[in-house]
Write a structure and sequence with these properties.
single chain, 282 residues, alpha+beta, Diaminopimelate Epimerase, Chain A, domain 1, 2 domains, 17-stranded mixed β-sheet, 17 strands, 19% helix, 39% strand, disordered N terminus
Length: 282
């Protein structure tokens, strides 16, 4: 029988494929070297037919004050300051590698703290939400709890901007059409992530996600934090909620020290980007 697997050593670029609730990532460990990622490489890697495919790309680097530093790229080649599920996935992998139960990770959001939550779950403190219009940012001063947009959404900053709608049935929304339109709404000069949610029961929300620079995703950690904060500010829920996404369940707890996000993670496979492919897309 012909061999189907090429086990010849390559001098290309190693990577990991991970996901949190179906929100999937390519992770490149650049510690001890120069981060190799460009916008063009990120777009080529994101192609699910000609590359690897991801919602976000994460690059790990050394940091002087935290255990590691993370940089996030969207599928369209733009940078993102926060990616909650990728942060959890990398924290879980690194805690297991080091044999520790806690870790610090520097992002553009600041230094985030991750802990082993038991039962295979990982928690990350995503920091305090930003609710002032200038911090999110919005294009002009306004009440972020009630935006002057049809559907009456809430704006929240979690290191990246979020626009959260609450409907009777989030599953009835044309996610692709409305999400794409709202991502580029003029009130959001840096574009925005968009969420559509409804209340299932006490402190239990159903949510669907359109991510800035990625499109429809099965889950989003920072979006889950933003929706939980928006629901609590609206008085729809308490500050500790369960959120059911297309990819599964996540738990958000808005505490005095920040918004904690807890959920499962998975490392799917490792691979190597070949030198030939890298040369072709650079």
């Amino acid at each position: 029988m012909a061999r189907m697997i090429d086990d010849t050593p390559h001098s290309g670029l190693p990577f990991l494929k991970m996901h949190g609730l179906g929100n999937d990532f390519v992770v490149i460990d650049a510690r001890g070297g120069v981060a190799p990622v460009t916008a063009g490489l990120a777009r080529a890697l994101a192609d699910r037919h000609r590359g690897v495919g991801f919602d976000q790309l994460a690059v790990i680097e050394d940091d002087t004050d935290a255990d590691l530093r993370l940089t996030f790229w969207n599928a369209d080649g733009s940078l993102s300051a926060a990616c909650g599920n990728a942060t959890r996935c990398i924290a879980r992998h690194e805690m297991d590698r080091r044999g520790v139960a806690a870790l610090t990770l520097r992002t553009e959001r600041g230094v985030l703290h991750a802990v082993d939550a038991g039962d295979g779950l990982t928690s990350v403190n995503m920091g305090q939400p930003m609710t002032d219009w200038a911090d999110i940012p919005l294009a002009e001063a306004m009440d972020t709890l009630q935006l002057p947009i049809p559907g009456d959404p809430v704006a929240t900053g979690m290191g990246n901007p979020h626009c959260s709608f609450f409907f009777d049935d989030a599953c009835a929304v044309d996610l692709a059409t409305m999400g794409a339109r709202m991502e580029h709404h003029p009130l959001f000069p840096a574009r925005t992530n968009v969420q559509f949610a409804h209340l299932i029961g006490p402190d239990h929300l159903r949510m669907r996600v359109w991510e800035r620079g990625a499109g429809v995703t099965l889950a989003s950690g920072s979006s889950s934090c933003a929706v939980a904060v928006a629901a609590a500010r609206r008085g729809l829920t308490g500050r500790k909620v369960k959120i059911t996404l297309d990819g599964g369940d996540i738990w958000i707890d808005w505490r005095d020290d920040g918004v904690w996000m807890t959920g499962p993670t998975a490392t799917v496979f490792s691979g190597v980007l070949t030198p030939e492919w890298l040369a072709a897309v650079q």
